[in-house]
Prior knowledge:
Oligomer: heterodimer
Number of strands of chain A: 0
CATH superfamily of the largest domain in chain B: P-loop containing nucleotide triphosphate hydrolases
Mean pLDDT of chain A: 85
Low-confidence stretches of chain B: 1-5, 316-335
Low-confidence stretches of chain A: 1-23
Helix content of chain A: over 70%
CATH class of the largest domain in chain B: Alpha Beta
Structural class of chain B: alpha/beta
Distance between the termini of chain A: 37 Å
Amino acid sequence: xxxxxxxxxxxxxxxxxxxxxxxxxxxxxxxxxxxxxxxxxxxxxxxxxxxxxxxxxxxxxxxxxxxxxxxxxxxxxxxxxxxxxxxxxxxxxxxxxxxxxxxxxxxxxxxxxxxxxxxxxxxxxxxxxxxxxxxxxxxxxxxxxxxxxxxxxxxxxxxxxxxxxxxxxxxxxxxxxxxxxxxxxxxxxxxxxxxxxxxxxxxxxxxxxxxxxxxxxxxxxxxxxxxxxxxxxxxxxxxxxxxxxxxxxxxxxxxxxxxxxxxxxxxxxxxxxxxxxxxxxxxxxxxxxxxxxxxxxxxxxxxxxxxxxxxxxxxxxxxxxxxxxxxxxxxxxxxxxxxxx
Amino acid sequence: xxxxxxxxxxxxxxxxxxxxxxxxxxxxxxxxxxxxxxxxxxxxxxxxxxxxxxxxxxxxxxxxxxxxxxxxxxxxxxxxxxxxxxxxxxxxxxxxxxxxxxxxxxxxxxxxxxxxxxxxxxxxxxxxxxxxxxxxxxxxxxxxxxxxxxxxxxxxxxxxxxxxxxxxxxxxxxxxxxxxxxxxxxxxxxxxxxxxxxxxxxxxxxxxxxxxxxxxxxxxxxxxxxxxxxxxxxxxxxxxxxxxxxxxxxxxxxxxxxxxxxxxxxxxxxxxxxxxxxxxxxxxxxxxxxxxxxxxxxxxxxxxxxxxxxxxxxxxxxxxxxxxxxxxxxxxxxx
Lengths: 341, 335
């Protein structure tokens, strides 16, 4: 690819008459790769990224500390899959790494994307960029890809780092299945955070000012992380009231199911439920289980395949959410006028 | 036919409609290879829309635009690899140096390695930005940004350069350099340059031909001399007079004269419109009545006047237009 484009350049240099006929254009992927490269460099060098990294590292360290101090209690209860407990156990009043990431992970995505398009527009670099021989979608794809790469880098570094420190601190050696479960967890997390990246890019396409898009995406994040459960329970209680024993007898299962399904609209809940299942082989169902379903069930651990099967809808749901958010921003960006005003 | 052969930019019945508003109305334009063409018009005349259509960044409602034989809408990549675009208010990535910005543009155009670095140094030298090249672009002045913008445009070695309001907000010295550079791009490198502007004085120094654009329509197109001739034929003469003492009595005295169509007082000056050249009679007349002529100027000939006349012809009130232009000046133009 590079060789071809260089040859083109040489041809042009040797031919000052600017032959139009013989001049082939630069391949579209060259521009996209150049863009991804530049966006990556921008992200990695930016102060914003540094701050995020410090924030995430601090919380990871705190959660690791909590896990190491609380792990003996956890082992006392259940001595299998101990290594996973480094990720799922919290200490006294310190949440686990898993819940930290579920809550703070979105911030990484939001911070990387909230000014992706509108800052280019505001700085007047967008119309210079679109005048280069690249397709317009290369810009938004490049930005999204660069963001996803950075997110994957951060998530995997943190996840593997936690494991490494855990090995050093506790002397535990992970089993193959534990390693696989952790990798699935990290992949899930990357998709989850990428959803928030796509959402913030969407806001950056829609909103003219970076501040507006930042506020909008943060409010969505807070709503889904904190208020969605309140809203869900209000609706569930309104539809299936459980005010007295009689109502509870008839409605409690429906109430619970509706409440949970409403909660699952929130990517935060969806993700939390999925990773709890993945990281905890004792979780055998994500829905309410009735007593007669449990009759004759033998208590045991699910294999990784079965755990994955259980949360496959969650994964596809999250991936779909991410793609929808990105798709909408893609279409929005392609239809937008280029001019800056 | 011969003219068609050498025209590099061509628009055929190019039309763009935004809702009910016609931004560009049936534009037929042919720009020859190697010339500097000035697209003149007030803000909101549809200049930027036309440029965006030429670059394939906006789809025309009907008609088509071609650059070097490529359809701008269907083959935007081919077009964009031979056309350099310098937008108004050109921006750079603020946390990158000038050199890094150019490097990025070079990579987008498929350059890399030693060849890229050489080209960057060469262009920085050409626009006189070598010293500031390794400073962050956030520290650049408007003039420096404009010069870096030209280097940026030249990175891809374009055959056609399109500049949108390049002279906006540049100091006189910077302006002179910029105009020299534009001239050089056309004469020395043989590139075609299309400049859109509402600043006439600067543009007339460098343009081979100009097109005057009002409300989406091209109302005149040609060399300065051609436009002037066109105006003189169907037009009237306009005279600027400054006399001492400056009193209103003169208004009444002159208004009665046969050849004078209209007389107006603007500040200390009288604007006299007449059917023929009345300068000899007027000086004589004023001298007889005890006035001293301090200033006498026959309008016309410069682009400013041509521009004004065409606006009047297009049924626009010159004054309201001027003030509107000024009002819009501060904002980013939507032209």
